[in-house]
Write a structure and sequence with these properties.
4-stranded antiparallel β-sheet, 21% helix
Length: 277
C-alpha cells in the first residue's frame, strides 16, 4: 500500500495497525494500574432476588452475505466470556470493566475467529463477536439506575433486524483492552450480572437485592434509512426513559444515542418502507 499524506500511521498497513494497537493496549495497562477505580471481582452462584432488567438475543444470525462459520465461532466466544461474567456482583461504589473481567481472548483460551470491525470493514479476528455480549450488557444497564462510565460505539446496522426492530440491537464496541465497556454502581445496594447461553440464544439479567423506586426503558424515534454519498445509514434517536414505579409517571427522558450508523449488510435487505429519500 502506498502511503498518503493524510493517512494515519495505523492505516498504512496491517503491520502499522498492529503496532498502533499494541501501543494502545500498553497505554491502557498503565492507566489501569494508576486508576483509583474499585473493579468488581466477586462472583456468586446464587442469584440476587430482584430482576431489574432482562434481555435475550439470537447467537447465530443467518442470511444473505453472513458468514455462518464466523457466526458459530462468535457463539463459542460469547459462551466462553459468559463463563467469566455470569454471577458477577458489583457492590456500591464498584465499577464493572468488561476486559478486566473477561481477560485477553486468545486461541490458547479456546477463542476462535469471529467477526470484528477494523477500519470500517468486517473481517475475522480471534475473539470476535463479543460486541454482541457487551451490547447486551449495555442494554441491561440502560434499563437501570447504574451509571455508564465508558462506552464506545460502532455501527448499529451490522445485520438485518430479526423480526420487530429492537432499539440499539447492536452498536456497543469492545476491543482488548483499550476499548472497554464500564459502568459504576452508585446506588445503595449490590447488583449482579447474570449471563448465559443455550443452543440458540444469549440471555442476560441485571439483578439487585430489592426493587428500585424507578422503572426504566429504551425507546427509539424517527427510525429510518437514508443514502449519503453512495452509502446507506440507519438513522434514529434512542432515549432512556425513567418512570416513577408507583404512579407510572414519566420523570425523565434522556437521549442516549443520536444514531447515524453505516449499514454493513446487503442493501437489498433494507426494508424498502424504511428508506427515506
Amino acid at each position: 500500500m502506498f502511503w498518503k499524506k493524510d493517512m494515519l500511521f495505523c492505516e498504512i498497513s496491517p503491520a502499522t495497525y498492529a503496532i498502533s494497537e499494541q501501543k494502545e493496549i500498553f497505554k491502557r495497562h498503565i492507566k489501569n494500574l494508576n486508576s483509583k477505580e474499585i473493579i468488581a471481582k466477586t462472583r456468586l452462584d446464587e442469584k440476587l432476588t430482584n430482576v431489574v432488567s432482562a434481555q435475550s438475543s439470537h447467537l447465530i444470525k443467518r442470511g444473505k452475505g453472513i458468514d455462518e462459520r464466523l457466526q458459530l465461532n462468535k457463539a463459542n466466544n460469547i459462551r466462553l466470556a459468559c463463563g467469566k461474567l455470569n454471577g458477577l456482583i458489583v457492590r456500591p461504589g464498584e465499577t464493572f470493566s468488561f476486559w478486566l473481567t473477561v481477560g485477553k481472548t486468545t486461541k490458547r483460551q479456546n477463542y476462535k475467529d469471529g467477526r470484528v470491525i477494523v477500519g470500517g470493514r468486517i473481517m475475522p479476528g480471534v475473539g470476535g463477536g463479543l460486541c454482541n455480549l457487551s451490547n447486551t450488557i449495555h442494554r441491561l444497564v440502560l434499563q437501570s439506575p447504574l451509571e455508564v462510565t465508558e462506552f464506545h460505539s460502532h455501527s448499529d446496522a451490522l445485520a438485518p433486524d430479526e423480526g420487530e426492530r429492537v432499539p440499539f440491537s447492536s452498536g456497543t464496541s469492545v476491543s482488548y483492552n483499550y476499548i472497554d465497556y464500564r459502568f459504576k454502581n452508585a446506588t445503595d445496594q449490590n447488583v449482579q450480572l447474570c449471563l448465559w447461553c443455550d443452543d440458540d440464544n444469549l440471555y442476560g439479567e441485571l439483578r439487585s437485592e430489592r426493587e428500585y423506586p424507578f422503572i426504566y426503558d429504551i425507546t427509539e424515534e424517527n427510525h429510518h434509512f437514508s443514502m449519503e454519498d453512495g452509502k446507506y445509514y440507519r438513522i434514529s434517536k434512542i432515549y432512556k426513559n425513567t418512570y416513577d414505579r408507583q404512579s407510572g409517571r414519566l420523570l425523565n427522558k434522556t437521549l442516549v444515542l443520536d444514531n447515524h450508523s453505516e449499514v454493513m449488510f446487503d442493501y437489498d435487505l433494507i426494508p424498502k418502507e424504511l428508506i427515506l429519500t
